[in-house]
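Hi L., both proteins are below.
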Amino acid sequence: MYRAPLRELRFVLDELLQSQVLAQYPGLTDYSADVAESILGEAARFAETVLDPINRSGDEQGARWTPEGVVTAPGFRAAYRQFAEGGWSQLGTDPAYGGQAVPQMLVTAVQEIWASANLAFKLCPMLTHGAVHALELCGSKDQKQRFLPKMVSGEWTGTMVLTEPQAGSDLAQIRTRAVPEGAHYRLFGQKIFITWGDHDCTTNIIHMVLGRIEGAPAGVRGISLFIVPKVLVSEDGSLGKPNEVRCVSIEHKLGIHASPTCALAFGDREGAVAYLVGEPNRGLEYMFVMMNAARLSVGLEGYAIGERSYQHAAEWARTRIQGKPPVAQSEGPAPIIHHPDIKRMLLVMKSTTEACRAVALYAAYQLDVASHHPDEKQRAAAQARADLLIPIVKGWCTETGNHVTSIGVQVHGGMGFIEETGAAQYIRDARITTIYEGTTGIQSNDLIGRKIGRDGGTAMNQLIADMSRELQDLETSAPAASATRRAALEAVGLLKDSTDALVKALASRPDTAMAVSVPYLMLCGYVIGGWLTARASAIAGRNVKGQDRSFYESKLQTARFYAQQVLPNALALARVVQGGAESVVETDAALI
């Protein structure tokens, strides 16, 4: 049974990152710690009482394709109706269209709760939120008025429609064609892997589709973005006849069985009616608005499933009686949580999940500063840092989620390999997160090619300097917090040396930089996580003798473990980044 980690979320928001400062910024003046606590509490109640109870049954029964359309798993339609009626789809969207303006930090925290309780369900509103954001920034006045109010209210949902059978992640190969017809276009083509591309939860689905206008340049320079409603929408917002969009099949997947992953056919006869978003041939640029939001949201899915797996494993370890620990608490067998290696595994799960959460919410905080700070220079600096962090959040947090859920099965032993215990679902569900919205390799290439290569490492070196300065000045009253600070400072030094080596490689031999890009991304995650863990440990040390003593004691021991048994991964990864490229680039592919 899932329980939202409300105390931990409030610690990160209020104490670690001090999100209350955001209330000073235009557009966020209604935000406060009390508002956050109220919203998180209601989100927890909904997740625990509505979403969690249909998570297991949704996995077992899944979505179902029919010639008339996709039928969702039992309970999902009712849950979505309650979700929309509760106003959850409005969170973090423009009040001009019925939304509720809150910080991205809070939206990210709430999305974690949805993902932990029921990842398959969470994917639907996540994609709608991304489509709404893209239309807010890039849509015309008419498009916003026609589509946004009902998408924001949750009456309609939205999708991202990119992938084609022959193209995969190579969007330059997209063949979906758009033929001009008066004020709109006719779209012809087939797309695959469209999450929640068809369902029975709402009366309409607004597809955001990448296609190529006839005569457009080849490659990514000729891609445009189109709005393609499942059901046509009149100027007054009423629904008309069905558009030529058809779900031809749904995928049979390893996990997230209740999330329909669709193959969609556009334009079987006359062509699907489509509306161009923005200017022709700028579709990839516009789609990246959605993709950046989705990458942050998928990144949090990694540690959200890790949190769920940790809770499940910890409860199992407290109640499973097996063997006698080396230092027995009593005569005879004891709960396995007293065995040293079970403790170690649970601490890996807990400490890395907490570090990932801190990094993701810190990235979301930077997005809030970039959107709302009154000073233009501060906004630009925050945007640069957020751009740098998003591929790290997406890559490191999802890889960590896969690792944590695998450990969760291991804690259960042989029983974890059996579906009845529930541990296996988390590892199956988490597996897609390293692939969604670009694989870890794509994220790492984005990190070093676009983010670090673009400015010669300036943004990363500024982050490194900020981390180093803060750690040097960090006041730590507890011995454990002091040891964590020293370990984090050492790791920041490793990241500095590795970044210098990577920038040099990018300038002379880009292939060698690409060969170690994933290890570099993972190094960034561990080190940034270590910095925030050290900061959390210092806060805990100052508060451990006051109220909520057990929480802060737990925080101290978790941070100590991260410093001693997780953060040393940085040393190995730094060695790979600084000296491991040749073993890749000099290998003959024919001999692999």
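That was the first. Here is the second:
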Amino acid sequence: MRNTQTLPKLVQSSPKNLAQKAKKVLRQDLVNKLNYINFQDATVLLNFKHRQFKRTLSLVGKPAPCFDGKALIAWENPAGMPGKLQSFEFDHILLDDGLKLIRVEAEIEEINAQGLLLRLPEESLEIRSRSFRRHACQNIRVEFFQNSARFQGELIEFSPYFCKVKLTIEAPQTFAWIDTASPGYLVMFKNETVPFSSECTVVRQTRGEKNRTFVFKLIPHFSRRFPSKEFRSTRLNLTPTPEVVFTHPLTGKKIHLSIIEISGAGFSVEEDEKNSALLPGLMLHSAEVSLANTFSFKCRAQVVNRTEEETDDGKKYRFGIALLDMDIANHVRLESILQQASDKNTFCFNPVDMDSLWNFFFETGFIYPQKYASIQTRKEELRETYHKLYTQHPNIARHFIYQRGSTILGHMSTLRFYESTWLFHHHAASKKNATRAGIVVLNQMGRFVNDSRNLFSSHMKFAICYFRPANKFPNKIFGGVARHLNNLNKSSLDDFAYFHFNKEESRSEHALNNYDLEPTGKEDLTQLAWFYENESGGLLINALDLELETAFLDDLQQEYEKSGFSKSKHLFSLKKDGNLVAVILLNLTDLGLNLSDLTNCMHVFAIHPDDFPKEVVYATLSELLTRFNRKELPILLFPSSYAEEEEIPFEKIYSLWVLNLIYMDDYFRFLKRLFRGFQH
């Protein structure tokens, strides 16, 4: 039964007034609508009026298939029927499609315990009673919070700005606890998920001691999923138009919408104002985006905003939808399509002609004679590594190429080398057009990071880059960003002394007497963090997985193995008489993942230099190379000043740049200021 307070006002108007306002529906069309309701297993509303008092009784009925001018409608709740109607007489049927009502003044031919048989009129009335379609819901549990009180119930229906909810109270609660003049908070549950929540106010309610129906006005303050960005992801209008398909989490109905604009971070769609079913804040736990029926991907997304637009077809709502997560391989494909749609000469993660790439590396001087001398004896192994990196698209790596015809003009790549840290490296450009090509691939890299960093599957919190301060271009960009920001929480620089250590050539005869070389423990990491904070205070500990939360994880090692690569990380502590002297981070990978072998080296942190003289350094390095059956490895010694003080010969200084990717806007702002032609 339904109280008349919950019905639209027009329903309670006189038939004469309705006839003046309403559109006529012929019997043939009415039969089609009843059959559609039957097909959908939906219901109609049967209204009866009291013979003595001005009271209306509303009952829910389920129409049977209708093939002539008669309609058989079964009671949804047949208990006690038709005895409950002794004081009532039939008045009319209401067909509600969520937007319009059809009032059918039929005649009863028969009524019994199962239902009633009605003779349909030649014409009925279609009432335009609502500005927005009301969408019926099932199996959506709700909780309404106000002033620390929680009320539970179910969602009946919703529209773009309102929702109808049935609440049930349990002692000692009373409905007097709900202050209709104050806002509350409504949370909707589907199984174990929360598809929607919103602040709201009470518009109206029915009477009832244990159960009441409330109409809430939604107050969606939700305007973004992630912190706002000055440099937003580039949004494109693609042809042919992409489409998104999803099952609406509140109605259970399948929705198909055309995508107006799309980027690597989200997309926008439009809905007709009257039929809109999206709500700002609505979670889409499983949506599928299709691009021209050639590429589709499933994703988790969220509606983040709604704006009104006037079009030739009437008023529309445009919704911004943010991507929350998706398969990382599919995101790579999406980025590749979008970046090439922006510039036909830019290629991201595409198959590469390996001869052209190697020629580019040598021609630009990126592989200079000394570097080639260190790798030439294992060139076949190097070719195999790069074939896998550039043709098989592993999840751990990305590459960006600026190319005209078959000629590569610029290149940059990145590697996920720590749990949430990506290494920028191999930045090179043709000498003929070095500045232009170098900036283009740098922009490609930045766009990829900006689109990807909020996706959980990207594991992207920090970007790092090793460069020589004497190399002007990276020092101008990466070093320049850190110096310009002048904020160690945003970006930091740390200098390492770099040298190759060969255990045979070193001829170290110093034994590690009174020293212990053992796996690093939690207390050692704490001391390392204190040492680094005092020495630098930057982001290195976080970015290189040297904090307790990430130091002993092996998830990334497994990801490398899935992609056909090898990677292992080892942490050792050197102690003297139980006191920590140094911490060594040893990374072992396939040859050439980084052509300077900075992914295949030791980071040595000299915590107590007084107990770590040069002879002990060499003895420690020799011991580790012996344990891992290595003859030679590059060494990065921190702080770099320690190498000078201990007169440890080194070949060059490498600066490690770290950027906290929360501050990508600062990075882009600096590049825009540095390069007048830079456009994100």
